[in-house]
Automatic annotation (TrEMBL):
The keyword Hydrolase applies. Keywords: Hydrolase. Residues 132-204 are annotated as: Disordered. InterPro entries: UFSP1/2_DUB_cat. This is UFSP1/2/DUB catalytic domain-containing protein. Signal peptide: none annotated.
Length: 483
């Protein structure tokens, strides 16, 4: 079989170039013997003797119209049908331990040579190699992740059994995550109503988050201070925040350049920090994406940067900023729909991000993509994102990768949001969004390339965590973007 050729699942339309990821899909979605997947824990339905309340009808209706959901060890909620993609991202987080034998890096050139005027980011600490990589969301509940090299030598039956034993202990049933709310432009004429769990998540009706979680969010991630001497002899004090990673966009740019399957790629401004969730924090992805957008505004000194001096605002501070935007009439229906978000774990979406920016005088526009007869919804989304980047690239440019000065895009689909930092078109005509996902941290294989020019023999593997193509997007019928 030719290297790089797509491999097809024999039971559904899932495809992948990596036989290992295809194996994970088969083990999860198509278990041996046709038995129900051990990863799904089904809810037992009990019949009520009395008519349900209006609130209960709404909650049950949300469950009935959705598929089965499970909660990963990382405390995020996933559709069963997309759980293999979620696991792939966790595997991608650990990618890189067996990379030295297949990858070489030319580390002589600093980041300032890639982007003149930029100071090279300090190297991240990479754990030493081990035969079993563990991704944890807390000290007591690890997810064991077996490297592909080790698993490839196991028999089919043992691989299937090991997958069950590896993961069945870390899953438990939960309620479903919310679909995205319509943007403020789309809901301007709607009669406001109080939203429930279907839109705001399992904590839709809580008055405040637990004290331990609020304390964790106020303290924030661990900060490490590094003193660095600049070429002109000055002492530079650099703060490294554990859940904030700078310099990822230039790495993605070089990977796209080196991937032979990419015909053309576009990247946003390089000053976007990848912000990832803290352990055990739950569903604050909307806030983390707002932080990524603010990182661009602050570091690129874009319109409104004067509002964001120093560190990125915390989740608690962002809640206050959204509430103040509502006070001033920006997307104020959000307060009626949510009942207020200050100090809670209620999910937020595109309307809240839009309100925050508009209140600070930062121009932005929201677009919603729903089912249309002419094109699948995900194709409409991909076309709109490509046009966004094309507008800032020379039409006659011969460059394979076009680096722009554009802002990133806030991207929402049912149950999750991400930050779009680029777009790529492949040789076979397919397209991918290039995203920073707050749910997953950069892998060691990617982290060691931050701030340097490099060459790698496996760019496609390292790009996998940042690509969201048709096979992922076609699962959803609605999308929202804020740009």
């Amino acid at each position: 079989m030719k290297t790089g050729e797509f491999l097809d699942c024999p039971w559904c339309n899932f495809t992948d170039r990596d036989h290992y990821f295809l194996l994970q899909h088969v083990e999860t979605i198509h278990p041996e013997g046709g038995r129900p997947s051990p990863f799904a824990i089904r809810e037992e339905v009990t019949h009520q003797s009395e008519p349900p309340s209006e609130e209960m009808e709404e909650m049950e209706g949300a469950r009935d119209c959705s598929s089965e959901y499970i909660e990963c060890q990382c405390r995020e909620f996933c559709l069963l049908t997309e759980f293999e993609s979620h696991l792939e991202m966790h595997y991608a987080e650990g990618m890189g331990f067996d990379e030295p034998s297949r990858t070489s890096a030319d580390v002589a050139a600093p980041a300032s040579n890639i982007y003149p005027g930029k100071t090279a980011s300090p190297p991240m600490e990479i754990p030493s190699p081990s035969p079993l990589h563990v991704v944890t969301s807390g000290p007591s509940r690890p997810i064991p992740i077996k490297p592909a090299v080790e698993r490839s030598h196991l028999s089919t039956s043992r691989r299937r059994g090991n997958a069950v034993r590896d993961f069945i202990g870390v899953l438990r049933h939960s309620t479903s995550p919310p679909p995205p709310r319509k943007s403020s432009q789309a809901t301007r004429n709607r009669v406001p109503r109080r939203l429930g769990r279907a839109e705001l998540g399992p904590h839709a009706h809580e008055e405040k988050m637990p004290d331990w979680l609020r304390k964790e969010l106020e303290i924030g991630a661990k900060v490490k201070v590094i003193n660095q001497i600049t070429p002109d002899g000055r002492l530079l004090r650099i703060e490294n925040i554990a859940n904030e990673v700078r310099g990822i966009v230039p790495v993605i740019m070089q990977l796209c350049e080196q991937d032979p399957t990419v015909s053309r790629a576009y990247l946003c401004h390089s000053d976007v920090t990848h912000v990832v969730k803290l352990a055990k924090e739950g569903g604050f992805c909307g806030y983390r994406n707002i932080q990524m957008m603010i990182s661009y505004i602050r570091d690129a000194r874009s319109d409104g940067y004067e509002h964001f001096q120093g560190r990125l605002p915390s989740i608690i501070q962002i809640q206050d900023m959204i509430e103040r935007a509502w006070d001033r009439g920006f997307s104020s229906l959000g307060r009626i729909e949510t009942g207020g978000i200050r100090g809670t774990r209620k999910y937020i979406g595109t309307p809240e991000a839009q309100a925050l920016l508009q209140n600070l005088g930062i121009g932005c526009s929201a677009d919603a993509f729903n089912e249309v007869k002419e094109l699948p919804t995900h194709d409409c989304l991909l076309e709109a994102v490509e046009q966004y980047f094309l507008a800032s690239c020379p039409s006659k440019s011969s460059q394979k990768v076009c680096r722009t000065s554009l802002p990133p895009i806030y991207f929402q689909h049912p149950g999750h949001s991400m930050t779009i930092v680029g777009f790529e078109r492949r040789n076979n005509g397919s397209c991918d969004l290039l995203v920073l996902d707050p749910m997953f941290k950069p892998s060691p294989g990617v982290s060691r390339f931050i701030g340097v020019q490099f060459r790698t023999a496996t760019p496609e593997k390292l790009l996998k965590a940042y690509r969201r193509g048709s096979s992922y997007l076609r699962r959803y019928s609605t999308f929202e973007i804020l740009k």
